[in-house]
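Morning F.,

Quick status update on the modeling queue. The single chain you submitted on Monday has been processed. Sequence for confirmation:
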Amino acid sequence: MKKSGILNRHLAGALAELGHGDGVLVCDAGMPIPDGPRVVDLAFRAGVPTFAEVLEGLLAELVVEGAAAAAEVRAANQEAAALLDGHFPSLELIPHERLKERSAGARLVVRTGEAQPYANVLLRCGVFF
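Structure tokens below.
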């Protein structure tokens, strides 16, 4: 058994398959899941695990070269907005409907148990060298 890092075998395997430029949608429990991408649903119950916990874990495992979130997060979920701003100084803010459209092109969707609005981010994978 792994000693550290991501223990969920489905998520660990999906992350290992990602390449440069691939998209990863980290979303709350209310975000519509697009058809097509691989989905790892971590939601256990409302609020568990949180968006912040999942994002922190993923960022420890991934190289991210860009991120996009719904512009509505600033007004509707200041906690998520502050978290995203802290991690992504060049965060691209787009309308929520556009984020949903772009999510269809993601290679992986990671669903959290978050129950707060607009706790979603679309990550673009980078390379470690």
